[in-house]
Design goal:
11 helices; globular; 74% helix; MetI-like fold
């Protein structure tokens, strides 16, 4: 068997170093979170236990960990649903040229290149000057949409650019109304992409810091709470919190992947049943 070229080993080493750089800090935090009651924020570890994980569920002297988690989770769901709905509507609207579509497209994309802290500052000022309440569910919600919607729309633009309109024409020829065509033809076909948009929307919102910094009002989201804890918490409880939030993120991603797999199996089964029915 021919040996791989030297470039293969160079690329393999580079990829391994990249993985260490990418996941090394997270793994380090996870390891330090399992210290004993006398543990500190650095190595060497002082014992091994689940003490700091149990400590998370007790009354904390500073911060509102679980309140901030609930706010981030609720905000993530709000942003996710809005991103999916608006992205689908926008993707369908941009299938046909209309007056100002090019300008509107570039305005949507522009929010990705503007520094996030400026978006947060601008939204916060608009709400303050308009006499509106600066709150995570209003101004925070709006500022995060400037981050998630462009990604969702770009995905939908790509999806509908490859979409075969003959499926819609066949549905209309069979007497389907426009809504029935969207519900029973378009949405099932683009469903895997909708899962991707939903995952983007939730995860980008859940860990967004800069665009929420000046728009969350008096109640912190989880990223803001963790940032605040870094200035006044000197125990591994903050590492335990980081480990749990990372595990939650992986759990969310796993749930979306499972949903994608279930939908794929269901579509395959429906296709097989349709094929047997034709036979």
């Amino acid at each position: 068997m021919e040996r791989p070229p030297r470039s293969f080993y160079v690329l393999a080493v580079f990829f391994a170093v990249f993985l260490v750089f990418l996941y090394g800090p997270t793994i380090t935090i996870a390891i330090l979170s399992f210290q004993g009651p006398q543990g500190g924020l650095t190595f060497p570890m002082r014992g091994v236990s689940l003490h700091w994980f149990f400590d998370l569920f007790e009354q904390q002297a500073v911060g509102d960990i679980w309140g901030s988690f609930r706010r981030s989770f609720a905000l993530g769901l709000m942003v996710m649903v809005t991103t999916v709905v608006v992205s689908v509507m926008g993707g369908m609207a941009f299938r046909k040229r209309f007056a100002g579509s090019t300008v509107l497209f570039y305005l949507i994309i522009t929010s990705l290149v503007i520094p996030s802290i400026l978006i947060s500052l601008g939204v916060g000022l608009i709400f303050s000057q308009a006499g509106l309440n600066v709150h995570w569910s209003t101004s925070g919600f709006g500022s995060q949409l400037t981050w998630t919607l462009p990604f969702g729309l770009l995905i939908m633009f790509a999806v509908f650019n490859r979409f075969d309109s003959s499926y819609e024409e066949a549905a209309r020829d069979l007497g389907a109304s426009p809504w029935q065509t969207v519900r029973h033809v378009v949405l099932p076909i683009i469903a895997p992409s909708l899962i991707g948009v939903a995952l983007f929307g939730f995860t980008l919102s859940y860990d967004e810091f800069a665009r929420t910094l000046l728009t969350a009002g008096s109640y912190n989201t989880l990223p803001l709470e963790i940032f605040g804890m870094t200035t006044n918490v000197t125990t591994p409880v903050i590492f335990a919190l980081g480990t749990l939030t990372t595990a939650f993120s992986f759990l969310v991603i796993g749930a979306f992947i499972l949903l994608f797999w279930i939908m794929g199996k269901r579509r395959a089964r429906q296709g097989s049943d349709a094929g047997q029915g034709m036979v």
